[in-house]
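#onboarding

Welcome to the new folks! Below is a worked example of what a typical request in this channel looks like: someone posts a single protein sequence, and someone else replies with the predicted structure as tokens. Don't worry about understanding the tokens yet, we'll cover that in week two.

Example request:
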Amino acid sequence: MKTLIIGIAAGILTTIAFLPQLIRTIKTKHTKDLSLVTFSLFGIGVFLWLIYGILLCELPIILANAVTLIFVALIAAMKIKHG
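Example response:
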């Protein structure tokens, strides 16, 4: 049970860490200082964590990485769109 709580807490914190960047990017459409390479590599890593979580049937890993992947994909798409 303790490990589940730690996993959920870690997932929530690492996922919401991208929320301020996503909100700011949506509001300002300013993406000049964001690295597309960094977001792409991070997105691939998050996708692999998601697959890992699915293979292990670990809900905290699955949920955290699914939401994070959406956030990262939105930011990357705005970077591509707005340069």
